[in-house]
Amino acid sequence: MAQFAILLYAPAPADWSEAPGDELEAHGIYADKIGELGGSIVTGYALHPSSGAKSVRSDGVTDGPFVDSKEVLGGITVIEARDIDHAVEIAKESPGTWRGGIEVRQLLG
User: Fold this and answer.
1) Mean pLDDT by groups of 10 residues along the chain of 109 residues
2) Which domain holds residue 38?
3) Which of 12, 44, 64, 78 is the most buried (most CB within 10 A)?
4) Rg (CA), the chain
């Protein structure tokens, strides 16, 4: 099976300590649901709030995420799925859609 990055975007600063309890609980349930849908989790990480990020460009380093946005990257899950359509089917079940959005990208390799 191919591997896909499920990129979770949440309202800035994407501080998971401020996420509603039912949403955090649903993420644990979602992990089981991925298997039920025929996929598998390779790895996953929640990120610290974007307010602690640093952006590096050719002309220097700035505080904060790379782009100024209402929603920022809050976490990454790498899954195995049959194809992009299967990965999207799995991503649609994520509680990451409750307050933000999800991007699905196939990994090279």
Assistant:
1) 96 93 94 96 95 93 86 96 98 95 95
2) 2-106
3) 12
4) 15
